[in-house]
């Protein structure tokens, strides 16, 4: 093939290929016409032989090779990968000969001058190359000034976007024609035989491009040396090559066309000399631009820096990781810093507008490139050393994630970088510090806790070793063993441990296992004590954060250990620490927790002060939904219903803005521009705070003018927030809880009918943001609510809601609806559970309460895995000790002599459970208990007439409730199953399906949470139907709730209330017991179970005879249960104290009755509609 093409063409192409590849030290860079390898000398000899008249070309090639070898003599490779002692940012002696090599270089320089008569631009460019290498930048510029229109290289060279169709732009070598096709550059190596692109080495176009890029780079470096006071000249010169380089990146494929990407034929190897000069030109331009340009702007010269960054990143796709790894690492760091600072300087996107994430995609690509470079250019550190480059990349990755909003769901790629970093570092505290934080915000608290413990251990041991070495070291041995290099700074240590303590405190409150919760709470205190060991009293912000964390820890300990002897002291200590933190450094979180502290029952309760702090929290951080929610709840406690409604509406609007779903700004402000509660109104659509909301007041530059080293990437990290930003799941839950409070407030003020279509809107809002199953697809939940209404109507044959059996009228006032029931149409008939003579006394409060302390139930928390009681625990022939002849399934075990022994055993189990109740009352039970009786805080309403959603239903799939389907585990069959249990102790229940995140994927955990939330919504709608008197609709809603989450104990609590509304006390008792079977420490189930016992005892007691023995035993058991409850999770639930007082009255203990009634009345005063612990949480 070579012979057919002719030897002249063959050796032209071989010479061009060898020059473009830059194989200066290769023994055999080319092949002869027969395919045999030839050396550089043979190649030039054969070229002169077969290409007569081009001796100048051979001389130019020979001298270029000689100069390249001289420049690489003191380097390890031809790529000049070494960085000078001044660092990569300083030009230094790059591309200059060592002193001992100047004489040899001068000989080549003079030799080239002898052939200059040809006048080609290639020779002039080569002379400029020699002049710069000989440390003569002025002569270099003089030679380059003779090149015809060198500046035109910045123009578009290749109009076509294709790879092979660009027209030739250089003159034909060796011809007398002086005509230029599109440029006046006259190259000695360009052929006129064909049109060619940069990628075509054979026609000389590539080498001509190398000469142009090299000339521009040499001109820029010369200007850097000669015009140090005006660096813009050099920067402009480097930028002039951007269009030429853009064509290079576009036309050269990553793998050369028609060949495989082997080591010898890859695009990098074949174009190596081109890539050397392209990299150097872009790098020097970027370094100068980092000192000169304002990266927050993209206009004029400032935008040129971003162009250079983009081109460098595009060209780097052609380079192997080991190619100039030091230089590329520096540019990657600068690029990432520029992206991070630009993102922070940019104004926050308008709420609801589409967020542009192109920059984060570029940043992640640069991080991956930098990661690949470090994987091959660094190694696992030796003893006493650290891989600082990998740790710096870790800081860059975290800073990039923070600049993108620090969203937990978007932290997965950073976690990948951190895991990779563990393979190139040894117990790096930097890596572990970030890992602990990111795992927690991603929803993996277990792994976050393990990493936190590892961080504490590593830094503590390193500090001990450093202190020991400092005591024994001499001047010669100080630091010789590397001790102390793994010690994090004091500020980082304190911040990390404070965050860790807050994390452990939050986990302790939601832990279902009481013992594990107490352990985590104690560990939080230990972590906090370690943080204090390195706390500087001069840093007021850190001191305040430690005081806040300790205050929160005291609250958590009070709720987890449930010790009646220390609870008050811990609350007092928490309040004093919060006040000290506020004096040291006020934060919105401090105000929030102070508001909770002043709301909490006790001698320090001060509702007005709590409202003041809640307002301060809202004004300081208006983007936190929970601040608004807390303020709204406090206003309900004060009776300011209108202000509470407006505050909750504003909080709901803020929640929508945070989720990016709406563009509406918060409303509800009064005519004077301020919210009626005294909260200053803000424009929440244009935030003026935060990293993305502030325009810089002065130019933002990456480097100082005289910077010789890159700044540490740790300086880009934002100070740790007071708490991690809620992830999307948490933000959704917070917004849902606020809407539940809104509906509760509406029902309390307007009655159940007042909610109207708001209930349907909440279901619609839920379905638009969550899809937890096929049956719950988008826009299907609201129609399903109407379907429940219609199905219930069909089951009862459209009977009136005033019907005595199918639909019983409940008193509409939400305060009294769950305490009593009246059967419509039957005047004078009273429930067996609520005799008229045993009505509760009227509480003395400022609100318009006309009935006793209410008992209300809101959806319960997830069930816990702990021992449960069987149905036999309250076994009786009937509730009043008399045999029932009804044909219905009975809850009690058959009466008679054979049942007494079993009943005693069951009572023993119950009593044992009462004595151990303090140790078994879980935090979740506490949260349930706090949802009991908060002025019907869990009740939602529904109008008597629902709109017709038949058209919306369509073919919506429907899954029948397991209440209908299951024979042995369903609600209707459960009584028989429980009654057939032999004797305690019962077999341990199976583990709940909602296991720890380590056992389920985060996606499944999120789905489980969504199903529990949806189940709770259906249960709240059931309570509304029940209060409206729509009993069958209430049952349908309970069935829907069970379908979503069959392990939700609140399902059985609501079913028990449903049965109470139907006077089916036995079934109600069984439902409450099933709730306790799922969650033995469920507060609401315990209270309602004791209500059943109370009603039965009151109904069966005779004025002269008293209670029957069976009921007396039940009262004793109820007293034990309620005593344990009021000492533990239900200490602040007034209903628990009220019923305990009633039980004491039946026992004849009048003094204890008065004490309990007085405390119940105290607790009922200044109480918000819903329990803050369940609606918001006791700590942020």
Describe the structure.
The protein has a two-stranded antiparallel sheet with strand order 1-2. α30 packs across α38 (1031-1044). It is elongated, with a radius of gyration of 40 Å. Helices cover 54% and strands 0% of the residues. The longest helix is centred in the middle third of the chain and has 28 residues, at 445-472. With 1180 residues, the chain is mainly alpha-helical. The two termini are 78 Å apart. It is built from 45 helices and two strands.
Summed up:
This protein is mainly α and 1180 residues long.
Number of helices: 45
Radius of gyration: 40 Å
pLDDT < 50 stretches = 151-184, 191-195, 256-265, 660-696, 796-1000
Helical/strand content category: mainly alpha
DSSP, total strands:
2
Strand arrangement in the largest pleated sheet:
1-2
Query: What is the straight-line distance between the termini?
Result: 78 Å
Average pLDDT figure: 74
Largest sheet: 2 strands, antiparallel
Shape: elongated
| Approximate helicity band | 40-55%
Into which percentage range does the β-strand content fall? under 5%
What is the secondary structure topology, with strand pairs?
Layout: H1 2-5, H2 7-21, E1 30-31, E2 37-38, H3 40-50, H4 55-71, H5 102-114, H6 121-133, H7 137-145, H8 205-226, H9 231-239, H10 242-251, H11 267-270, H12 272-292, H13 301-315, H14 325-345, H15 358-377, H16 388-403, H17 412-421, H18 429-441, H19 445-472, H20 490-510, H21 514-532, H22 540-561, H23 567-584, H24 588-599, H25 607-620, H26 625-638, H27 641-659, H28 728-750, H29 758-769, H30 781-795, H31 900-915, H32 917-920, H33 923-930, H34 950-953, H35 962-965, H36 974-979, H37 1002-1028, H38 1031-1044, H39 1049-1061, H40 1065-1078, H41 1083-1100, H42 1109-1127, H43 1134-1147, H44 1150-1164, H45 1172-1175
């Amino acid at each position: 093939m070579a012979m057919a093409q002719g030897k002249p063409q063959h050796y032209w192409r071989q010479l061009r290929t060898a020059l473009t590849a830059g194989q200066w030290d290769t023994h055999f860079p080319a092949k002869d016409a027969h395919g045999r390898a030839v050396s550089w000398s043979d190649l030039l000899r054969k070229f002169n032989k077969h290409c007569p008249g081009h001796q100048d070309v051979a001389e130019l090639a020979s001298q270029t090779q000689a100069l390249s070898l001289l420049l690489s003599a003191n380097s390890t490779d031809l790529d000049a990968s070494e960085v000078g002692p001044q660092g990569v940012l300083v030009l230094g002696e790059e591309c200059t000969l060592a002193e001992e090599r100047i004489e040899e270089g001068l000989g080549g320089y003079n030799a080239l001058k002898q052939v200059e008569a040809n006048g080609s631009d290639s020779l002039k460019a080569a002379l400029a190359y020699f002049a710069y290498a000989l440390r003569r930048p002025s002569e270099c510029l003089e030679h380059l000034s003779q090149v015809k229109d060198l500046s035109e290289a910045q123009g578009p060279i290749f109009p076509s976007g294709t790879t092979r169709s660009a027209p030739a732009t250089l003159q034909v070598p060796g011809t007398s024609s002086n005509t230029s096709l599109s440029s006046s550059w006259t190259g000695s190596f360009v052929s006129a035989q064909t049109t060619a692109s940069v990628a075509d080495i054979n026609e000389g176009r590539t080498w001509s491009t190398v000469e142009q890029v090299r000339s521009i780079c040499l001109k820029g470096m010369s200007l850097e040396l000669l015009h140090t006071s005006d660096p813009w000249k050099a920067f402009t010169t480097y930028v002039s090559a951007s269009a030429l380089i853009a064509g290079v990146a576009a036309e050269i494929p990553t793998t050369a066309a028609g060949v495989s990407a082997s080591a010898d034929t890859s695009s990098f190897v074949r174009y190596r000399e081109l890539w050397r000069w392209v990299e150097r030109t872009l790098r020097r331009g970027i370094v100068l631009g980092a000192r000169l340009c304002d990266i927050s702007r993209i206009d004029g010269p400032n935008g040129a820096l971003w162009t250079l960054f983009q081109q460098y990143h595009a060209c780097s796709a052609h380079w192997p990781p080991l190619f100039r790894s030091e230089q590329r690492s520096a540019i990657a760091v600068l690029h990432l810093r520029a992206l991070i600072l630009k993102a922070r300087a940019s104004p926050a996107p308008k709420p609801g507008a589409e967020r542009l994430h192109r920059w984060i995609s570029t940043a992640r690509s640069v991080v991956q490139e930098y990661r690949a470079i470090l994987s091959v250019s660094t190694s696992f550190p030796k003893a006493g050393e650290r891989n600082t480059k990998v740790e710096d990349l870790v800081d860059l990755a975290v800073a990039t994630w923070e600049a993108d909003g620090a969203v937990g769901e978007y932290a997965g790629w950073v976690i990948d970088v951190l895991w990779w970093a563990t393979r190139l570092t040894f117990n790096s505290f930097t890596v572990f510090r970030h890992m602990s934080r990111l795992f927690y915000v991603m929803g993996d608290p277990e792994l976050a806790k393990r990493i936190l413990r590892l961080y504490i251990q590593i830094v503590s041991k390193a500090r001990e070793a450093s202190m020991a070495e400092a005591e024994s070291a001499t001047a010669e041995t100080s630091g010789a063993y590397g001790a102390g290099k793994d010690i994090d700074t004091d500020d980082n240590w304190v911040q990390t441990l404070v965050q860790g303590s807050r994390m452990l405190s939050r986990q302790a409150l939601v832990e279902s296992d009481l013992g594990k919760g107490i352990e985590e709470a104690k560990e939080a205190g230990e972590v906090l004590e370690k943080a204090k060991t390195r706390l500087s009293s001069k840093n007021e912000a850190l001191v305040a954060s430690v005081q806040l964390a300790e205050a929160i820890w005291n609250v958590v300990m009070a709720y987890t250990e449930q010790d009646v002897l220390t609870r008050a002291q811990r609350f007092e200590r928490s309040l004093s620490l919060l006040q000290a933190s506020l004096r040291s450094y006020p934060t919105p979180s401090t105000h929030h927790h102070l508001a909770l502290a002043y709301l909490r029952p006790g001698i320090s309760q001060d509702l007005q002060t709590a409202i003041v702090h809640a307002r301060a929290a809202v004004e300081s951080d208006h983007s936190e939904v929970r601040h608004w929610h807390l303020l709204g709840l406090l206003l309900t406690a004060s009776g300011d219903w209108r202000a509470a409604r407006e505050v909750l509406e504003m909080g709901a609007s803020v929640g929508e803005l945070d989720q990016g779903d709406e563009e509406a700004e918060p409303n509800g402000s009064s005519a004077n521009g301020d919210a009626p509660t005294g909260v200053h109104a803000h424009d929440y659509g244009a935030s003026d705070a935060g990293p993305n909301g502030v325009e810089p007041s002065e130019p933002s530059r990456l480097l100082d003018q005289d910077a010789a080293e890159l700044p540490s990437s740790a300086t880009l990290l934002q100070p740790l927030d007071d708490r991690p930003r809620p992830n999307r799941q948490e933000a959704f839950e917070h917004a849902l809880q606020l809407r539940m409070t809104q509906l509760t407030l509406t029902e309390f003020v307007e009655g159940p009918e007042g909610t109207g279509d708001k209930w349907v809107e909440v279901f619609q809002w839920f379905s638009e943001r969550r899809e937890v199953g096929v049956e719950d697809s988008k826009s299907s939940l609201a129609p399903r609510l109407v379907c429940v209404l219609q199905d219930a109507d069909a089951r009862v044959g459209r009977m009136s809601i005033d019907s005595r059996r199918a639909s019983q009228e409940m008193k509409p006032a939400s305060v009294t609806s769950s305490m009593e029931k009246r059967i419509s149409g039957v005047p004078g008939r009273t429930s067996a559970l609520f005799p008229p003579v045993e009505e509760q006394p009227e509480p003395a409060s400022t609100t318009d309460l006309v009935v006793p302390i209410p008992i209300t139930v809101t959806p319960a928390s997830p069930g816990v895995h702990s021992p449960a009681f069987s149905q036999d625990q309250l076994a009786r022939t009937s509730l009043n000790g008399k045999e029932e002849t009804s044909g219905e399934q009975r809850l009690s075990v058959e009466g008679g002599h054979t049942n007494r022994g079993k009943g005693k055993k069951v009572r023993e189990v119950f009593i044992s459970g009462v004595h151990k109740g303090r140790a078994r009352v879980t935090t979740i039970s506490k949260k349930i208990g706090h949802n009991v009786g908060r002025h019907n805080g869990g009740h939602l309403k529904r109008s008597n007439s629902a709109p017709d959603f038949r058209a919306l239903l369509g073919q919506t799939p429907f899954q029948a409730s397991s209440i209908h389907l299951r024979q042995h585990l369903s609600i209707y069959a459960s009584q028989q199953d429980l009654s057939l249990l032999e004797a305690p102790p019962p077999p341990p229940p199976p583990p709940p399906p909602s296991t720890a995140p380590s056992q389920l994927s985060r996606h499944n955990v999120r789905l489980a949470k969504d199903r529990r939330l949806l189940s709770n919504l259906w249960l709240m709608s059931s309570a509304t139907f029940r209060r409206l008197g729509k009993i069958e609709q209430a049952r349908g809603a309970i069935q829907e709730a069970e379908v979503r989450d069959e392990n939700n104990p609140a399902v059985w609590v609501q079913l028990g209330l449903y049965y109470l509304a139907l006077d089916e006390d036995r079934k109600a008792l069984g439902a409450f017991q099933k709730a306790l079977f799922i969650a033995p420490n469920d507060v609401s189930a315990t209270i309602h179970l004791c209500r059943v016992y109370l009603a039965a005892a009151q109904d069966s007691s005779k004025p002269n005879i008293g209670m029957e023995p069976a009921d007396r035993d039940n009262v004793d058991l109820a007293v034990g249960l309620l005593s344990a409850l009021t000492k533990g999770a239900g200490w602040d639930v007034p209903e628990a104290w009220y019923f305990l007082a009633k039980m004491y009255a039946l026992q004849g203990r009048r003094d204890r009755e008065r004490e309990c009634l007085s405390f119940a009345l105290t607790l009922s005063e200044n109480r918000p509609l819903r329990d803050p612990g369940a609606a918001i949480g006791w700590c942020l």
